[in-house]
Amino acid sequence: MAASYYLTLDIGGTKISAALFTRYGEIAGDIVLTAKTETFRGEEAVYRNVRNLLNELLMRHQLETGEILGIGVGSPGPLDTKRGIILHAPLMKWRNFPVLDRLTADFNLPARLDNDGNLGALAEQRRGAAIDLRNILYMTVSTGCGGGILINGEIYRGANDGAGEVGHMSIDPEGLECPCGSRGCFELYASGTALLNTMKADMAAGKKSRVFTLAGNDGEKLSGYHLDEAAALGDTYALALYRKEGYYLGVGLANLFNLFDPQAIVLGGGITKGRRFFHQTMMDTLKERCEQPINDDSVRYSEMNDRVVLYGAFFLIREYVEKRI
Ligand SMILES: [Zn+2]
């Protein structure tokens, strides 16, 4: 049988996901396998988990590597995409880890690597919310905030693979200190982690809200789920917190619109589950601060959710392989 499948990987700080794609872009059998990353065991153990998961996937589909065309890999940055090296992933304890060389040696297949933000942008333009557009930005808002830039349908990586670091654009020069060394970084205000920190601090300060009672007044149990529940019940605190989220997102997105004037920005990540509570404030803030005309179509939401990086990894490797044929 001729080779006609692609392997894809999404390597995250807590879990690794893998899926087999047909050459037409469907997830074979709709099967996505996951495994714990186990970062605490060190980089060799993490890589072993990656390799085992790919082997498990091949076994599930009863395929040999000869039937695979290549491997697409998504990982948090910073990366060297040309050399296929994960330069520094603090969450995974990886430093200058040559993930592509290792995969190529173990599976004898071509492999390509890119970061989550770039792959999100690629996936959304190739088959997602921005399929009708050529110039877009993608932003994921979850634990942190990542981004990707697509110009004329191609990933814009910058001079050092560093483009799209939207989480570290400063929105307050004298603001909170960021581990990156800067101050007032966007993700310190708009990420899911930022929301959670605010809720914890407010609970500890004795503020009253359904959010806190729903979490049993236990700061460790607090989550976005409780915030959504409380907002749906009309809780004043939860709704105000979401409006603040909308405000920060609007400020951040306005910077991106003013700099890139994209046809649209696609938003993904866990926070978008609460979009009905922040969308209006975000759009109002955006319209106030943008030079460009902003309409209802300017901001779109990802519908691929936690599969977006796998889809991006698929398009990355398929396009690489097809160019070589
Ligand atoms: Zn920062």
Which short descriptors sum up this protein?
Nucleotidyltransferase, domain 5; 325 residues; 2 domains; alpha/beta; binds zinc ion
Task: Describe the overall structure.
The chain is of the alpha/beta class and 325 residues long. It has two domains: 5-115 and 310-324, ATPase, nucleotide binding domain (Nucleotidyltransferase, domain 5), CATH 3.30.420; 129-303, ATPase, nucleotide binding domain (Nucleotidyltransferase, domain 5, 2-Layer Sandwich), CATH 3.30.420. It has ten helices and 13 strands. The chain has helices spanning 43-60, 99-107, 116-127, 187-190, 192-204, 210-214, 224-232, 236-260, 275-289, 308-324; strands at 5-11, 15-22, 27-36, 68-75, 79-80, 85-89, 94-97, 111-115, 136-141, 145-151, 154-155, 264-268, 299-301. It has a five-stranded mixed beta sheet with strand order 3-2-1-4-8, with helices on both faces. The protein starts with a strand and ends with a helix. The mean pLDDT is 94. The structure holds zinc ion. Zinc ion (ZN) binds next to loops.
* Gross geometry: globular
List the uncertain runs. none
| Ligands | zinc ion
CATH first level of the largest domain:
Alpha Beta
The run of helices and strands is EEEHEEEEHEHEEEHHHHHEHEH
Helix/strand-derived category reads: alpha/beta
First and last CA, distance: 18 Å
Strand content: 15-25%
Q: The CATH topology of the largest domain, please?
A: Nucleotidyltransferase, domain 5
Number of domains: 2
* Helical segment count: 10
Q: What is the number of beta strands?
A: 13
Instruction: Kindly report the average pLDDT value.
Output: 94
Give the spatial strand order of the biggest sheet. Answer: 3-2-1-4-8
Radius of gyration (Å): 20 Å
